[in-house]
Design brief:
Layout (H helix, E strand, L loop, with lengths): L2 H11 L9 H15 L2 H19 L1 H4 L4 E2 L5 E2 L1 E6 L4 E10 L8 H12 L8 H9 L3 E3 L5 E3 L4 H23 L7 E7 L5
Antiparallel strand pairs: 1-2, 3-4, 4-7, 5-6
Length: 194
Amino acid sequence: MDTTDLELLLRETAPQPSLPDRLAAHRERILAGEKSRRTRRLRMWAGSTAVAAVILGGGSAAMAASGMETPWGWVADNVFSVSNGAETCVAGFTVSFSEGVDEDSDIARETRAFVGSLDLQTLDTAQMEAVVRESKPTAQNESGDPIPISISDAEVKQFAVWRVSSELMWEHLEAMGYDAHLVGFNMANDECAW
């Protein structure tokens, strides 16, 4: 018996993991419950997250940003890092625009200039961190019992910085006379171990 035969034998006799039968229904229940609680801006954030994936993969849209390179090699409008005690966790922030808004328009230039000028390390996020901790998300198991989701201090800090920055950006745009609903604020992080 050679190594190929041994490998085939091992694969054929290995136990197959069983997946929960109602996993898709459980996921749909969680997503449906979450959608009903979001406000207009939270829905825009969720849609903006999809745009962030395009920016991560496409590169060309990210290269139009202000030039803050992330550890992953793409360019963000601003970058924030926080320690989780064992390593440094990094988040890249990008802005996106509704369809029909030109990347070279006044609102795009103003938004990128403002976001790029924010000192994310010194933002006062204490109040938003408390809000994030209070609204700690929960999931439900198959029988409908709540299951709390644990969030580390580093993750709470990243999310709070994202929320405070986006609120500041939208307030700034409205003060400048722009329609803030045309702009999305996205975060991509390195998902380091919490």
